[in-house]
Design goal:
The protein is of the alpha/beta class. Helix content is about 45%, strand content about 15%. The structure holds S-adenosylmethionine.
Length: about 300
């Protein structure tokens, strides 16, 4: 009998491709009904009185690209690229030489691959499996971190999983490279166990984002500390309340088409999710964190010493 093939130890504890596809592969036509034309599915950045959703999504994308240091000639990796709005703007407006997106959604990867811009590409690949052709100058990750640890894990398991993400990002970045991250988070001290047991907690886990959980800011900073120093930390929770209300209004305005595309249950569930999460962002039981990090010089040195 031949020996079984060697298997590398899989320490990933985040959402599986099946769980991601259960949400994101509901059909591009469905998401196009309520998202803005850039197909951005994360909190926008409403500033200076702007209230147009597309303008606010572009402002958010620009914020991350600038904080990550994306300029002419730079190479960018976008972890959790969705339908590719950020990587497209990186090459068309910020002059990036190359922008690579990673997603676990086959529909999203197909959508980006249909673009005719040779400097853009999307890979159907988990960040943990990505091997860059050369180090990136910048990394962005917007609205994907929420999927990097499944629900019900002990704090130390969650922080260890986030730590592997930050170490991997630092490994893939050139010296001095920056990472710009956006994620929904629970406030510090949030009673996660009590929330998980509520009807709404069960609903989100079972019907909206299976196999996913939210971090807190201290967990993120602790996990990042070996590899990155934080440069900017913002909590723009009111931006997500506003984004979710706009999505809800647009979905309701196209309800009949939405039901025809994905069925009544999914439309009702998403309507409930947008309504309830907007309220949670209003009162601060959900936060919307935007964080810019700089790779630590010490991380580079430690790695260099470990690899003579
Ligand atoms: C809420 S969407 C955000 C998409 C996009 N960044 C935006 O702002 O519109 C989350 C994205 O994270 C991706 N994702 C989740 N877990 C991932 C993983 N382990 N590796 C790569 N992508 C992942 C999903 O496939 C999806 O594209």
């Amino acid at each position: 009998m031949s020996a079984s093939p060697a298997r590398r130890e899989d320490t990933r504890v985040g959402a599986t491709p099946e769980a991601i596809q259960a949400h994101y592969d509901a059909g591009d036509a469905f998401f196009a009904l309520f998202l803005d034309p850039t197909r951005t599915y994360s909190a926008a950045l409403f500033a200076n009185g702007a209230d147009d959703l597309e303008a606010a999504q572009l402002a958010k994308i620009d914020w991350h690209l600038e904080r990550a240091g994306v300029r002419a000639g730079k190479r960018l990796l976008d972890i959790g690229c969705g339908w590719g709005g950020l990587i497209e703007r990186a090459v068309t407006t910020h002059g990036a030489a190359e922008a690579v997106g990673l997603t676990l959604s086959a529909a999203q990867a197909r959508h980006v691959s249909a673009s005719r811009n040779a400097r853009l590409s999307a890979r159907l690949e988990d960040w943990a499996d990505h091997t860059p052709a050369a180090p990136y100058d910048a990394i962005t990750s917007v609205g994907a971190f929420e999927h990097f640890a499944a629900a019900g894990l002990a704090r130390e398991v969650r922080v260890a999983a986030y730590g592997r993400f930050f170490a991997k990002c630092a490994d893939m970045l050139a010296p001095g490279g920056r990472l710009s991250l956006q994620t929904i988070a629970y406030p510090t001290g949030f009673d996660r166990a009590a929330y998980d047991a509520t009807d709404y907690g069960v609903f989100v886990r079972e019907h909206i984002f299976p196999e996913s959980d939210l971090p807190t800011l201290p967990e993120i900073l602790e996990a990042a500390d070996d590899a990155f120093e934080p440069v900017i930390i913002r909590n723009d929770r009111r931006c997500y309340a506003r984004t979710a209300r706009i999505w809800r209004g647009r979905l309701r305005a196209r309800e009949a088409e939405a039901v025809a595309l994905v069925g009544e249950r999914r439309v009702r569930d998403l309507d409930r999710y947008f309504r309830t999460s907007a309220g949670a962002f209003d009162i601060g039981t959900l936060q919307l964190l935007r964080l810019a990090f700089q790779k630590k010089l010490a991380f580079q040195k430690k790695r260099t010493r470990a690899c003579p």
